[in-house]
Amino acid sequence: MNTDSAQPECQIKYIQIIADGPQETITIKKSLRLFVRKKLGPQKVRGFKIYANDFLNWYAKYRNKPTKPPTQPPPVSNYLKAGDQVRVLSKKEIVATLNHWGQLRGCSFAPEMAQYCESTQKVLKSVERFIDERDFRARKTKGIVLLEGIICQGTASLGRCDRCCYYFWREEWLEKIPAQDSAIHPVYHNS
User: 16 — phi, psi (to 5°)?
Assistant: First the structure.
C-alpha cells in the first residue's frame, strides 16, 4: 500500500491558488481586484469600499434608484451568547442589510448560507478575535457569532472543501428566540 497517498497534505503550499483561484479562470476584472487587494491591504481596501459605497448611493439617489445600506451601520451590542436559540432572518431581510459588495460591516453573506435562512439554530459562541488569512493578522470583532453545526463545505465557484470552517454570522441577521423561564413554569413530578 502506498502510504504517501494516505497522508494529508499541508494547505500552506496551496494558499496562493486558493486566494487567486485556478489560473485558467481569472478574468481581467478579477485579476485587477486581486492586484488592488494585494497592493493596498485590507485596511485601505475597506476604506475604499466605504467611499465607493457612498458614491454609488449618491449616484443611485441622483437617478431616483434604490440605495444600499451604509457600509458602517451603528455598532451592535453583542447580545447573543453561547447556547442562545436564534432564528436566521429570511434571505430578503438579510440582503436588505448588505452594501454593494454583499457585506455588512465587512462580513460577507455567502450564497451557500442562504439555505439556513428562516431556520432555528443554536449559537455556538461569539467571535471576538480571528486570524485574517488575507494578511495573517489577528483581528478583533464585535457582533459576529458561530452557529452550531453550520459549517462551510465549499463554494460553487471553488468547489468542495474539506477544511470545515464555520460561517461568520452577523447578529443583525439573527433574531433571538426567548428562552422559557423555568422559574415561572416549574416542572413537578408525583411519586
Answer: -60, -40
> What is the 8-class DSSP label of residue 151?
B
pLDDT at 1: 42
* Strand, helix or coil for residue 49: helix
Spatial separation of the C-alpha atoms in residues 181 and 191, rounded to whole Å: 24
DSSP string across 103-123: EETTEE--GGGGGGTT-EEEE
Q: Are 100 and 123 in contact (CB under 8 A)?
A: no
Residue 157 C-alpha cell reads as 465557484
Burial of residue 79 (number of CB atoms within 10 Å: 0-12, 13-18, 19+): exposed
pTM listed for this prediction? 0.62
Check: CB of residue 49 under 8 Å from CB of residue 101. Answer: yes
112 φ/ψ sector (left φ>0, alpha ψ -120 to 50, else beta): alpha
